[in-house]
Design brief:
The protein is of the alpha/beta class. It folds into two domains: about 250 residues, Ribonuclease Z/Hydroxyacylglutathione hydrolase-like (Metallo-beta-lactamase, Chain A); about 60 residues, Arc Repressor Mutant, subunit A. Helices cover about 30% and strands about 20% of the residues. It is globular and about 60 Å long. The termini are far apart.
């Protein structure tokens, strides 16, 4: 699918890598910022032709990989840092890479060796009531993610409020946990651009993923949907002309899309509550009630989405865990 061209802005070059799958993401967006040397925001995944595609687009803008002085990764998912090592190798020089401290582990070599699919994830899926055949499909899919990125052995951490400056730009880091604990947006104040990673996307509602490997969490009470909604509020007062997301088209109405996201999650929460009114049920059995169509590859996303909404419903005493399982059973409560 062809997406609408990004606005032509001074010192900001959008590179939209076409994605073969999953089709709902449309593109993986990379942004080259500055007059040179450049800051690269995200890199896209390591898929056939993607490195060549980014190089060609940089060349058209008058740059090459050797003009990049730093790479900022909005969060630690493979489609956002997959090409970082390949870009460094093509540049023939070290390029400083930055990611939020809470997502540092996601890009590490240890994560690629041990953490893409863990025993904890296996237990979680069984607890959700997912059949063994579906769990095997998920295990295979997660294993395939290793081909989409090279681990980053040398990466520096950034924190909320950190600033990156160069000729023609000024970026401020805004920590927006939810999609992942270390997800960040970047606000470019001179041209009023928000680089939103996967925190805000125009054509889909981003997933606040359940954090299964909770040994990486500094707060054991962390809940991704609650964090996501609070992160939306952090952006509400920003002076933003355009939002440049990690996937798909740019956005020119930040307040409008924030309002639509909040409405979406209220509606989703009510759907989950209504689906549990009749009897106690495991999460996997709720999928058909909540989603009209779920592609085979998105079953994990559906389970995760229902779970994070259930966490809020339990907080609000609108639902309860009635059987610890496996599978765990949940029931709606009257309110």
């Amino acid at each position: 699918m062809q997406i609408k061209s990004f606005p032509k802005l001074e010192n900001i070059h959008a590179i939209a890598i076409p994605l073969p799958e999953p089709p709902d993401l449309l593109t993986a967006n990379v942004y080259a910022v500055g007059k040179g040397p450049l800051t690269l925001i995200d890199t896209g995944p390591k898929i056939p032709g993607s490195l060549k595609f980014v190089k060609e687009k940089l060349n058209i803008a008058g740059f090459d990989f050797s003009d990049i002085e730093r790479i900022i990764v909005t969060h630690g998912h493979v489609d956002h840092f997959g090409l970082a090592v390949s870009i460094q190798e093509s540049a023939g020089q070290a390029i400083a890479c930055f990611i939020h401290a809470q997502d540092r582990w996601r890009v590490s070599r240890e994560n690629f060796r041990e953490e893409l699919w863990t025993d904890g994830m296996e237990r979680f899926m069984a607890m959700m009531g997912m059949p063994k055949s579906e769990i095997q499909k998920m295990r295979n899919r997660f294993s395939s993610f290793r081909a989409l990125a090279d681990p980053l052995d040398e990466v520096s951490v950034m924190e909320d409020g950190d600033e990156f400056e160069g000729d023609g730009y000024h970026l401020r880091v805004i920590h927006t946990p939810g999609h992942s604990l270390g997800t960040c947006c970047l606000h470019e104040s001179q041209q009023k651009i928000l680089f939103s990673g996967d925190h805000i996307i125009k054509h889909i509602t981003p997933n606040p993923f359940v954090e299964i490997n909770r040994n990486h969490l500094p707060d054991t009470q962390y809940q991704s949907l609650r964090a996501y909604l609070e992160s939306l509020d952090k952006l509400a007062g920003l002076d933003v002309r355009f939002v440049f997301p990690g996937h798909g088209e740019y956005i020119d109405d930040l307040p409008g899309i924030i309002s639509s996201y909040k409405a979406h999650h209220r509606e989703r929460m009510d759907l989950v509550w209504k689906a549990l009114k009749v009897q106690s049920r495991p999460i996997y059995d709720l999928i058909d009630d909540i989603f009209p169509f779920v592609p085979e590859n998105d079953v994990f996303l559906a389970v995760s989405e229902i779970f994070v909404h259930l966490e809020i419903l339990i907080n609000e005493r609108r639902a309860a865990l009635t059987d610890t399982g496996p599978p765990a059973l949940y029931r709606a409560l009257e309110y």
